[in-house]
Task: structure prediction
Amino acid sequence: MDKLDVKINAKSAYSYPIFIGENLINNVYKLISDNTKAKRYLIVTNETIYPLLGKKLASNNSEFIILPDGEIYKNMETLIQITDKALEMKLERNDAIIALGGGVIGDMAGFAASIYRRGIDFIQIPTTLLAQVDSSVGGKVAVNHTSGKNMLGAFYQPQAVISDTSVLKTLDERQYKTGLGEVLKYAFIEHTCSAGKDFNFLEFLENNQNNILKREDKTLCELIKICCTLKSAVVNADEKEKGLRAILNLGHTYAHAIENLTNYKKYTHGEAVSIGIKMVFDLALKLNTVTKNYYDRAVNLLKSYGLLIKTDEVFDKEMFYHVMQGDKKVTEGKLKIVLPNGEKSVEITDNIDKKIILSGI
Ligand SMILES: NC(=O)c1ccc[n+]([C@@H]2O[C@H](COP(=O)([O-])OP(=O)(O)OC[C@H]3O[C@@H](n4cnc5c(N)ncnc54)[C@H](O)[C@@H]3O)[C@@H](O)[C@H]2O)c1
Result:
């Protein structure tokens, strides 16, 4: 088992561990009780995950809330169901909420933990690849609102994250690929993350493709460790997304518009992200911020993992731009784009001409 210590905000003493390994779930309460003083737990999960993993977490000190499965349930109504269950259990300030699930469950359970009695302990047990490499780390918790995704939320860090690669075996291929969309993103931003160490993640992904696609545990542990190290370096430098943290959104400004204009039904988030990453690479090539050689390497990597790189939708360009602007990452009306500007590095820019931004749509 690997243990990473994530330090949030260099000025504060707060840090939490991320445990990464195979079959950690079989002895999960040891890891949990080492990291919280909680006596009782509310485990938030959904109807898909509960039959697969529920038994492993059943204990005399815990109760489950089993939510319906799907992004459409990531809303205030479901959040209130979680807090109602915590109230019914009479959870106290020093008890804890455990998220057992993917990013949807993690975001909702974390938000519930942040508001229940002004904040109780929160443990993440991410069960999708996307959640293990991305959403469980960094403390962003939220629910959606009719006006947009993740509109209501908070920054709330967990006490611990427990990432078990063995639980990823039951993920369907589409969901696994969705996680890979976020994984590949780290290869293209590695240098800008300034993690203080070179992981050569692009080469790692190029060289370990078979093992990664086969979900081989050792390789996955290494992969998750690198992604979490890169993400936590960025979060540590900029917890509240005042600057650097936006680099984690490589491809996302396009992706959010694609998801929105297809009503969140046609593509998973990760699918939209891989299409969005290809779009920003097209943009970078046009603007001469990357070489043709590096561009080809990036596109080949996306293709070699079987990720989507284009959409068959025909979007209205004005509408697309309007939706991109509606993205909450827009500051003072300027559209921020995370632009590849060299090997493994990106910059955040808000002065690209609208015509060029839309030329690849
Ligand atoms: N907080 C953050 O920083 C952050 C970052 C990225 C994404 N997100 C959020 O994450 C969410 C997407 O997360 P996701 O991709 O994990 O989707 P998800 O949580 O909807 O899970 C995808 C599907 O996989 C199923 N599933 C989960 N674990 C499984 C397992 N072990 N075996 C079989 N099936 C399993 C789920 O029930 C669901 O049907 C979005 O709401 C997005 O906004 C948050």
